[in-house]
Hints:
The protein has 464 residues and is of the alpha/beta class. It is built from 19 helices and twelve strands. It starts with a helix and ends in an 8-residue tail after the last helix.
Amino acid sequence: MKISFKTIFFFLFLIIVFSIISFRLLEIESKKINQTALSKAKIKVYLNQHPYSEAIIREIPLFEKKTGIKVEYTVSEEDIYRDKLYHILKNKQQDLDVFMAGPYSIWKYSYEGLLEDLDEYINDNTFTDENYDLEDFLPVTLKTLRWNLNPGDRYGSGPLFGIPLGFELTSIPYNKKLVNEKDLDSLKTIDDLINLCNKLKNKHPNINPIGLRGKNHWSSISGGYINLYYSSGLSDFKKINQILVPDVNSKPSVEFNKKYMKMIKRYIGKDWENYSWYNIGSKLGSGKIAFLVDADNNGYLQNLSELSSEKGNISVYPISKFKLNNKKTNIWVWGLSMNRFSEEKEASWEFIRYFTAKEFLKKAIKQQTYLNVPRKSILFSKEFSENNPHIDFLKKEIENVELLMTPNPYAVDIMNDWMNILNRMYKDELSVETGLDELSLKMEEYLKKIEIKRSFNEESAYSR
């Protein structure tokens, strides 16, 4: 019997259709089995005290109801958060599943093989469907949470160690009643900044013209200091023949830091060591400080707080205009990461996926918990961007940002040492020259540790 071409084609078509349907049914069944297993899971989550974590905590009961996953969470202040987190991770404890982390911490934890590579969850439609839309994230926020584990190499390649939850840009939040924007337009150098402080102090003798973090903690360095430092044409490391060399005690760095110390002592005064993110933000909101060099949200949040007497008077100015050598604005990203030794990885990913998905982030921005959500479809939508000058600011600045610190596993340790030395300079326990020489030596010691680790462990924990 002769079979026609049309008949063969028809049967092939049926086979293809049947295969596709079977595959989809298996996929659906797999997801059902997966969801049943998840509904019995319990995970432990560790959060840094922050508006981002407040939004998560409010939503956890609904997450538990929708997924059946039970969540036990702990919140710590930033001063102790990373030390406690690192202690748990380095001991390879399995009773922590998900936590908040940013780029500097990720460089350390990933280098030690303590983080889960999240690419496999993103790329597996059993765990993540196409509606999650990874392409919707602002590209730079995702890039900051990728690293190839090679000290000195730029971030943005290698495994994905976190999913963005929110971001902050270094800026100049200021009180419009006290500071004229034209004066900010003239800022190009540290000398201009000192001159503005002098002008404001003469005009408003009962307030501090400037607020900069001074608490002896690495996060103080990652606030305004590092952006002013880099904007002045300086760097933490330089590369000589592809080898990292500390660059903090160069002659231009000494000059900059002398001026920085002069500004702190003259225009902030005795309590600088107590100036944290929270402290300077509240002082700006209460009219005790004219302007900050700090995260943009530290200004924006003062316009939301009922405790702020200057509510409605705070604006944010782009620090990208304050620069030499075409340096960019520093970005900080908070993300959600997973413990590589978690025993509840699928439930942990479901938590990360849920709290970085469009639905949750849209709710967070509607509740005004925080504004800097990392998804383009939300942040730049007409619904939220219309008549909102802060989102206009973010739109312009987000194209001009990068992480300014050189990626390396000891970045947090270096910044802790750096801030400690700045505090000792402030107390006149060290000269600027001696302090920066000491910092350079400490950085060299960290580089030696990197070389020792390399020689003992050539193969990465994430090698494929």
